[in-house]
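User: My instructor asked us to take a sequence, write out its structure as tokens, and then describe one feature of it. I'm not sure where to start. Here is the sequence I was given:
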Amino acid sequence: MTMKLGHLQGENHDGPGDASVLKPLRNSWQGIVISNGINPEYGKISPYWMAASAIDEAIRNNIAVGGRRIALLDNFCWGNPEKPENLGSLVKAAQACYDIAKVYRTPFISGKDSLYNESSSGAVTPTLLISAMGIIPDIRMAVTMGFKGSGNYIYLAGDTGKELGGSHYYKLNDCLGISVPKVEPEKAIKTFKAVTEATDRGLVSSCHDLSEGGLGVALAEMCFAGGYGAEVELSCVDGELREDFILFSESNSRFLIEVSPSRAGEFEELFSDVFCSKIGKTLGKKEIVVFSRDKNILAEGLDGLKKAWQTGVRL
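Assistant: Let's start with the prediction itself. The structure tokens for your sequence are:
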């Protein structure tokens, strides 16, 4: 088995890829896509929606690179299930696994649990890691997450809501919140199918899922990996939400997609029944520029942003 596409992408390995692609057979270009989903912060608010979001993230990470026919594995990390509060949250998470996997038609084929994780300070945060395995028909068609050129269009596929509960943005501001991201399967399935079809038609130059940090972080990561800047208009995403909500909401089932202007018409027609907005374009200069209602609210060089991203922030 050989690796075709690893997790760190871009010329300087500066971009966190959505999934890894493996080539298991010497005489076939068909491959295996492996991806994950996890966010313990959501478990502090709702174990049910934490589990649902982990499933959605693992699936969309798989789809982002070209995966389909996806199966799942679970890894529960919980406190003592003999305590009612821990057992209750475990049941809620397991119910979400059943509900979301069934509607997405992504069966659980294996998994494990790690229970009784407690100390004198209490139980661990209810946490579920979801791993997804999918099939990609041809690994040579695998999509990476770094921007590929200047002047290409940037689209945001999927609905953005006021869902910052458990987000990195709130955590940096010493908040937890209650507006945990939820999963809307009917909308999500339409988006997933459209992304897969666009990938198969060769319309997608790059693709990245939105998860921790939302639009702001996903956009920066695509710039880091590709070495190109970007210019986006937040009002194209939602004209009502506050700018920080649009930038950092962690709503599920969303993708940032780079499309060549020559293929934009075909792409937009394919997404006519899916919420999808053209929010900006890639730039030749290494800078991220963010507008809101035509007012410039951010202009930052990639080098400074990358340094802050790689050196970390105290939480």
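For the description part of your assignment, you could build on this observation: The two ends are 39 Å apart (CA to CA). Try explaining in your own words what that tells you about the chain.
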